[in-house]
Design a protein that fits this description.
The protein is an alpha/beta fold and 544 residues long. The chain has 2 domains: 234 residues, P-loop containing nucleotide triphosphate hydrolases (Rossmann fold), CATH 3.40.50; 230 residues, P-loop containing nucleotide triphosphate hydrolases (Rossmann fold), CATH 3.40.50. Helices cover 36% and strands 14% of the residues. The chain is built from 18 helices and 16 strands. A hairpin with a 6-residue loop joins strand 1 and strand 2. Helix 4 packs across helix 7. The radius of gyration is 30 Å and the shape is globular. The chain starts with a helix and ends with a helix.
Length: 544
């Protein structure tokens, strides 16, 4: 009896369980029990696939306030208060389909101004960043608009008093002054040593391109002129005769701004000595430590007498070089390189909390045109900008291409459309590049077609719009290009427009969109730049 009762209870429980399920009813004892063989969600997706219809993405909740993402499809908009997890709905996820041509989305500004310097009085600035009055006076005379240090400068300058520094911060944050001011102050505090038979600078700033060398030299010369410090520039692309002429100028240089190739030639031919070097800066270290320059930089470091530790920097009559590495990304292998010439314990990293992040004060738009519509879209954007520029309501424009052939080809097209512009690419002679660079800096043209040689070292406080006609090949290149707008002290708001056409473009742009929606840094930027072979060839053409 007990066994029969237990079986009846189990049978009743099974029938009640089946009855509680959706679309199932209690059946008689002889009727077959229905079985759900696949999940219902999968069954609905199969029905949608067979019917040719797809359910639209679930719209995000919208609240009053600033938008973070605005897309052509409203269901993909994202408000600024919302941070998505993983997986996240992406506009770019379906862009490989041809039906998505003319689609677009934008990363909106959640901050209306460039990162502001900290509010400090001149007396507080002197005390906090440890700069002496002569250096502050030189700064006020050379750049009266700079009255307070940025966050990067406030963090870096006090540390440059006896330790090697690795400073990684976003573009346009004031890194040049963060190492130039302590360099000048240290040279002022050192006694003059016996002159060498060949030029022997006391400060060296190594940069990857001639354009950046010209910009850094201009900053150093403006500051050093009132401090009675001589600044010289040593750039490549001119031959040994020009190098000898640059180094033979009198009085000899206290600070030398040089590119790796030109300095390597001067050292090999014994036209210059690094024996009296007390300060060595690698500006844009993420580029200098790449395979293109690594052998040259390694040779220069080995001949620079880098200080092993803080004690080596205190002897004014036997100077040892203090090493400062500056860049917009943290390069991999810095410890391995530095261990050859100095102690790793003497290296102090300084990083920005916004490093590798999407700039919150720059609007960044991604467009999906057809390949044949890219030129038409570019011409339309430039014509609209030209009308605004003539009325004084717009700044200048940078149009980036991945190779010099595209720059020349686009130039001919803009000539046919009567759009005035300048061109800058690595195949031009050095003298022509310098002239075009200076003309754009002085405002002789409002549109510059260029390769990545303009993404570093261009004083772009007047640049309002960056157009990536060719999408950059790496996230590092995107950071440097986008960093031409939204810089500290900029007078106009910044916008970046990128044309996304190829599958490899979409892969990189998808990483940018995902990082923006999830409010995190861009992935894969903790290592050195490792471009494919064709990108290395382009960089060699641009920088050697």
């Amino acid at each position: 009896m007990a066994l029969a009762r237990r079986l009846r209870l189990l049978s009743l429980a099974a029938r009640l369980l089946l009855a509680s399920r959706r679309d199932l009813t209690v059946r008689g004892p002889n009727e077959p029990v229905p079985v759900v063989r696949i999940p219902r969600a999968l069954q609905r997706r199969q029905e949608e696939r067979h019917s040719g219809q797809r359910s639209p993405p679930r719209p995000m909740l919208a609240r009053p306030g600033l938008p973070l993402m605005s897309a052509r499809r409203p269901e993909l908009n994202q408000p600024a208060h919302l941070t998505l997890g993983s997986p996240a709905p992406l506009s770019l996820r379906g862009w490989r389909n041809r039906r998505t041509h003319a689609d677009h989305f934008s990363i909106e500004c959640t901050q209306h101004e460039a990162p502001a310097p900290r509010n400090l009085s001149p007396k507080g600035s002197c005390t906090e960043v440890c700069l002496e009055l002569p250096v502050l006076s030189a700064l006020q005379e050379a750049a009266p608009e700079v009255v307070q240090p940025t966050n990067v400068q406030s963090s870096t300058i006090p540390l440059l008093r006896g330790r090697h520094i690795l400073c990684a911060a976003e573009t346009g944050s004031g890194k040049t002054l963060s190492y130039m001011l302590p360099l000048l102050q240290r040279l002022l505090g050192q006694p003059s040593l016996d002159p060498c038979r060949i030029p022997a600078p006391r400060g060296l700033v190594l940069v990857p391109s001639r354009e950046l060398a010209e910009l850094v030299r201009a900053v150093a010369q403006a500051l050093g002129s009132s401090l009675d410090l001589q600044v010289r520039e040593l750039g490549g692309g001119h031959g040994m005769r020009r190098i000898r002429l640059q180094l033979s100028k009198q009085p000899p240089a206290d600070i030398l701004v040089a590119t790796p190739g030109a300095l390597w030639k001067a050292l090999k031919t014994q036209l210059i000595s690094l024996e009296q070097l007390s300060f060595l800066v690698l500006d844009d270290a993420d580029m200098l430590l790449d395979e293109i320059f690594l052998e040259l930089v390694d040779y220069i470091l080995e001949g620079s007498h880098i200080a092993e530790g803080p004690a080596d920097l205190k002897d004014p009559f036997n100077p040892k070089a203090q090493l400062v590495l500056v860049g917009a990304t943290f390069p991999e292998g810095v410890g391995q390189l530095l261990s050859k010439v100095a102690s790793l314990d003497s290296l102090t990293p300084v990083t920005s909390d916004k490093l590798h992040c999407i700039m919150p004060h720059v609007r960044q738009t991604f467009m999906r045109p057809k390949g044949t519509e890219k030129v038409t879209g570019l011409v339309q954007i430039l014509r609209q900008h030209d009308r605004a520029y003539r009325t004084g309501a717009a700044g200048t424009v940078l149009v980036f291409c991945n190779c010099y052939n595209t720059v020349n080809w686009l130039g001919y097209i803009l000539d046919d459309h009567k759009i005035q512009h300048l061109r800058l690419q690595g195949q031009m002679p050095a003298s022509m590049r310098a002239g075009i660079f200076q003309s754009f800096q002085k405002g002789s043209g409002d549109i510059l077609l260029c390769t990545d040689i303009a993404s570093q070292g261009l004083d772009s406080t007047q640049v309002e719009l960056v157009i990536n006609y060719d999408f950059p090949l790496t996230l590092q290149d995107y950071i440097h290009r986008a960093g031409r707008v939204g810089r500290v002290g900029i007078e106009v708001p910044g916008t970046v427009i990128s044309f996304v056409t190829h599958p490899w473009d979409m892969s990189l742009a998808q990483k940018i969109e995902l990082a923006a929606r999830q409010r995190r840094s861009l992935p894969g930027l903790g290592s050195s730049v490792r471009e494919p072979l064709h990108q290395q060839t382009l960089l060699q053409q641009a920088y050697i």
